[in-house]
Design brief:
mainly alpha, about 0% strand
Length: about 425
């Protein structure tokens, strides 16, 4: 798929609008599912569910091995150049690697949780073991989505995970609650999630087959494993560091404070994430375009795109932050009165999110321009700071301490990335331009 100036603008408008609307639906569905679980489960059980999913999201990263980010970039280039054999080869290679790693990691963690579960809150152990089924499924789903995004089918590529999966999850949780009634717990909630992920995965495979260019199906697969793994290595490190930054607070809260604090913090962090959905939606659309513009040497055009998108994203995010600040307490009370005490933590996390948005799509600019190694270095510094801050602040302030550590780390992360972007690409990524 190729674009002239007008075609690119029209595609960006359509893709951003579609992705934005789908993201709104995803946020709304995520809110409903979180609200449903918080209401149906005790805080301890909801904490067990959130703890298990935090580990799943963390483990998926080394399993995917950065191949999802690599595939967005490579598939976009292979499509533009008509390299159908390479497109087929990278899909086969990536799926084989990820499937094998997913099964190995899931089995290893299952037995590790059984052996060392006595060192953490008992309500956290069984949901964690059951949740390991999700690791290979989610990892493979990310590869499938990456291929479709690289082919510029952003909306269809992310629909199964962003919309279909939460719809099914809400349905299955409601059904499980009716069946188990008072015995419904975190483990049953995880099982409902597994069913939703499996069905969404199957639908995603059908959608992928419909958008892959016909010449790919008849092409002889070509492989460049050394090049692909070399390109994926900094990306997996970066992705791993990103997920550690986003989940280390929940994991450390679970170990240091228990399931109830995990439950409160998870609700608060889900609320704060409402402020980031516009940036996330835009990043999905911008990724293949940035990769193509950089590969074609269109730096001035790339700068204009980055500046305009950064300002639009910030302007659209600011009202969401203000609404959450004004109505944060009643918002948290929807999940249960015990969650309203996390309001101050919500304010701290919202501060981090508005700073995150002000820096623009710095991560996309580095990972889509073959500067993943620099991004990984900056992320490594941020992760170390995050762990140290959480270790120091959680014992003092609990949920508020975890929020403060996350906010400060997010600011440092973006600052380092923005410096790297300017020094190596000559692009000014922030809202200032």
């Amino acid at each position: 798929m190729t674009f002239d100036s007008t075609g690119l603008r029209q595609w960006l408008i359509r893709a951003t609008t579609g992705n934005f609307l789908m993201k709104i639906a995803s946020i709304a569905l995520g809110f409903v599912s979180t609200l449903l679980l918080a209401r149906l489960l005790t805080p301890e059980q909801y904490g067990g569910y959130a703890y298990a999913l935090a580990w799943v999201n963390l483990l998926v990263v080394p399993v995917v091995f950065g191949l999802d980010k690599l595939m967005i970039r490579k598939i976009s280039i292979f499509d533009a150049d008509g390299q159908w054999g390479m497109m087929r080869g990278i899909q086969r290679f990536s799926n084989s690697i990820v499937a094998a790693l997913g099964v190995i990691v899931a089995i290893a963690v299952y037995f590790a949780a059984s052996l060392f579960g006595s060192h953490i809150d008992t309500v956290l152990v069984e949901p964690l073991r059951v949740a390991m089924v999700l690791v290979p499924l989610i990892a493979l789903a990310r590869l499938r989505s990456a291929v479709m995004i690289g082919l510029h089918h952003v909306v269809r590529g992310t629909f199964p995970e962003m919309v279909l999966r939460p719809v099914l999850f809400i349905l299955f949780v409601s059904l499980a609650h009716l069946l188990f009634w008072e015995s419904f717990d975190a483990t049953e909630a995880v099982m409902a999630n597994i069913c939703a992920v499996a069905i969404a995965f199957a639908v995603g495979i059908v959608l992928l087959k419909r958008v892959v260019p016909e010449p790919v199906n008849s092409a002889v697969a070509e492989y460049a494993p050394a090049s692909w793994l070399g390109g994926a290595a900094p990306l997996v490190l970066l992705a791993g560091l990103q997920i550690v930054n986003s989940r280390v607070d929940i994991i450390m809260l679970g170990v240091m404070r228990g399931a109830v604090d995990v439950a409160v913090y998870n609700v608060v962090s889900q609320g704060a994430m409402l402020a980031s959905f516009i940036l996330v939606a835009a990043n999905g659309v911008l990724s293949p375009v940035v990769a193509k513009m950089y590969a074609q040497g269109e730096r001035p055009r790339l700068q204009r795109l980055v500046t305009k998108s950064s300002r639009a994203i910030f302007a659209a995010t600011l009202p969401i932050v203000l609404v959450l600040i004004l109505f944060g307490r009643p918002f948290l009370s929807l999940f249960g009165e015990q969650y309203a005490g996390g309001y101050f933590a919500l304010l701290v996390l919202l501060t981090g999110q508005i700073l995150n948005t002000a820096f623009g799509a710095v991560g996309v600019l580095l990972t889509m321009t073959e500067h993943g190694g620099l991004a990984a270095k900056g992320a490594a510094v941020s992760v170390i700071v995050n762990i140290v801050l959480n270790a120091a602040l959680i014992p003092l302030w609990g949920v508020e301490g975890a929020a403060t550590a996350s906010m400060l780390t997010l600011f440092l992360w973006n600052l380092l990335f923005a410096v790297f972007v300017y020094q190596n690409l000559g692009i000014r990524p922030t809202v200032v331009g």
